[in-house]
From TrEMBL:
SUPFAM superfamilies: PLP-dependent transferases
Cofactors (names): pyridoxal 5'-phosphate
Protein name: Diaminobutyrate--2-oxoglutarate transaminase
Lineage: Bacteria, Bacillati, Actinomycetota, Actinomycetes, Mycobacteriales
Gene encoding the protein: ectB
Organism: Gordonia liuliyuniae
GO molecular function terms attached to this record: diaminobutyrate-2-oxoglutarate transaminase activity
Enzyme class: transferase
Record pathway: Amine and polyamine biosynthesis; ectoine biosynthesis; L-ectoine from L-aspartate 4-semialdehyde: step 1/3
Signal sequence bounds: none
Length: 423
């Protein structure tokens, strides 16, 4: 096998691949192998991965516990493509998910497999909410990100991504996310007044869709009391509450679902990214049993039944979610990152920490410096990306399984990179 070097590979991509590619522009290397928290290029350079597939690799690269299950399944010619047919792999995943994830949390959700990605889950959630209520409008929040298909874009805040739709994005109403107004009018009394006012011009919404932590929006964390207030408002006003847990679910904030800490129970939940465990495509839409009004085949997709993902998803549940120890370890590591960021902020002006669990962000007063710090971190052997409306926030999404030594090593690299940029 002949492997191209980085320069040859860049020529290939420039010649054949669309200009839409993005991450490769920030990390100009030819990656070849990966294991755990590390990714290696063809020249043998190793990088600590604090990006983790944008949150799709919560359990690290090529997790050996999942790899063994996947190899065994493929070796015995297990079903790969099955649409929504009944298979052993799907049955075993559903049983593990129901008994080890849903039942201990007293969540009586049914599971829909809407397609392979997060935006598929969001599209099905929006369609279901409209079908159940007979209404069209969806309330979303400033700086939200829910996906790149038309329905998901309609409830996404980023102007550049919305512009890519090429047509008007309708039937959605943006509202301020928690702390968007600097603490003013965040008890939802203003929102309820608009809902009750026949002269407000707001059609009564079918649902509200929210992220408990806005990752792409800049690591904006909603307070538990704000989420509780939103859930109570939805009940009073007969609106369904959709929590988009595509990036923050599967343990990113500590608990399996990011909304657990607030004590709310959403009507609909979307999951993707790390639900497949191994980085394989998979998405779920979860909803209260009484909302299951779909007709057979009313929402479908060719790749909604990815059986290898069922295998590795079950392995993730069995190995990491049989008790609460993994969640507690994640919270401990998240606090360790938060403490390092707080120390960094105390030593330097122009930056501020944001985050919860193992989604942590560092917001810069000068947006350009966030990108420069990430570039320096890459030069020193670490992957980290920016987020926020002006890419002003360094967003850390390390594997939840990384060791304390790896965590400290990554934070040392990032700290040095930030301080060099701020000098």
């Amino acid at each position: 096998m002949t492997t191209q070097n980085s320069a040859e590979a860049e020529d290939t991509f420039a010649k054949y691949e669309s200009q839409v590619r993005s991450y490769c522009r920030n990390w100009p290397a030819m990656f070849d192998t990966a294991k755990g928290s590390w990714i290696t290029d063809v020249d043998g350079n190793r990088y600590l991965d604090f990006f983790a597939g944008a949150g799709a690799l919560n359990y690290g690269h090529n997790n050996p516990k999942f790899k063994e299950a996947l190899i065994d399944y493929i070796s015995r010619d297990g079903i790969t493509h099955g649409l929504d047919m009944n298979t052993v792999a799907k049955s075993e995943f559903l049983e593990a998910f129901a008994t080890k994830i849903l039942a201990p949390r007293d969540l009586d959700y049914v599971v829909q497999f809407p397609g392979p990605t997060g935006t598929n889950a969001v599209e099905s959630a929006l369609k279901l909410a409209r079908k159940v209520t007979g209404r069209e409008a969806i309330v979303n929040f400033t700086n939200a990100f829910h996906g790149m298909t038309l329905g998901s874009l309609s409830v996404t805040g980023n102007a550049m991504k919305r512009a890519g739709a090429g047509i008007p994005l309708v039937h959605s109403t943006p509202m301020p996310f928690d702390n968007y107004m600097g603490g003013a009018h965040e008890d939802f009394s203003w929102f309820e007044r608009v809902l009750n006012d026949e002269g407000s011009g707001l059609n009564h919404p079918a649902a509200v869709i929210v992220e408990t932590v806005q990752g792409e929006g800049g690591v904006n964390v909603a307070r538990a009391e704000w989420l509780q207030g939103l859930a109570e408002l939805c009940k009073r006003q007969d609106m369904l509450l959709i929590v988009d847990d595509v990036q923050m679910g599967c343990g990113r904030t500590g608990d399996f679902f990011s909304f657990e800490e607030s004590g709310i129970t959403p009507d609909i939940v979307t999951l993707s990214k790390s639900i497949g465990g191994y980085g394989l495509p998979m998405a779920l839409t979860l909803f209260r049993r009484e909302l299951d009004v779909w007709e057979p085949g009313e929402h479908n997709g060719t790749f909604r039944g990815n059986n290898p993902s069922f295998v590795t998803a079950k392995a993730a549940i069995d190995n990491y979610w049989s008790d609460g120890s993994f969640a507690e370890e994640t919270k401990r590591k998240g606090q360790r990152i938060a403490d390092r960021f707080e120390e960094l902020c105390q030593r330097n002006e122009g930056i501020k920490r944001r985050g919860r669990g193992m989604i942590q962000g560092l917001a810069f007063d000068d947006p350009e410096k966030a990108g420069k710090a990430c570039a320096k971190a890459f030069d020193n052997g670490m992957l980290a990306e920016t987020s926020g409306p002006s890419d002003e926030v360094i967003k850390l999404l390390p594997p939840l399984t990384l060791s304390d030594d790896e965590l400290d090593q990554g934070m040392d690299i990032l700290t040095a990179s930030v301080e060099e940029v701020l000098r």
